[in-house]
Amino acid sequence: MIKKTLATAVMLSCFAFSSTVMAAGLEDDMKTLGKNYKAFNQATNPQAATAALNNMRSAAAHSKQYKLAPNTTDKVTSSPALFEQIIVEIDKAKVLVQAGKLDEAKKQAKKIAELRDQGHKHYMH
């Protein structure tokens, strides 16, 4: 009973938090992405993992509206395409979580961090 109540409270708070993500700027989106990536990796149950992935997806989707100029002359993926790749990886991890494969999802989600690091390398000034 307590677990169900706690899970419901977590889901409701995540829903409330995710609605505030839509009003955030790029910096806030990146903080949300990082914070929820950490929460996802620390998740011990599918509900918490799914909530973190949903928040990450919302932040990445919101970030696609920002067109960033690379700080390098190297050929790089456009910023909206990079955010789209992050969304694809989040969706892959979510499918694994829903299939009851949380540990496998955490391994899959390492690609999210790799894409984030790639973006930081090319777009941070």
From TrEMBL:
Alphabetically sorted, this entry's keywords are:
Signal
InterPro entries per UniProt: Cyt_b562, Cyt_c/b562
Pfam families cross-referenced by the UniProt entry: Cytochrom_B562
Record GO terms (molecular function): electron transfer activity; heme binding; iron ion binding
Q: Which GO terms describe its biological process?
A: electron transport chain
Q: Which domain of life is it from?
A: Bacteria
Signal peptide (from-to):
1-23
GO cellular component terms, semicolon-separated: periplasmic space
> Which SUPFAM superfamilies does the UniProt entry name for this protein?
Cytochromes
Family as reported in the entry's similarity comment: Belongs to the cytochrome b562 family.
Q: What is this protein called?
A: ATP-binding protein
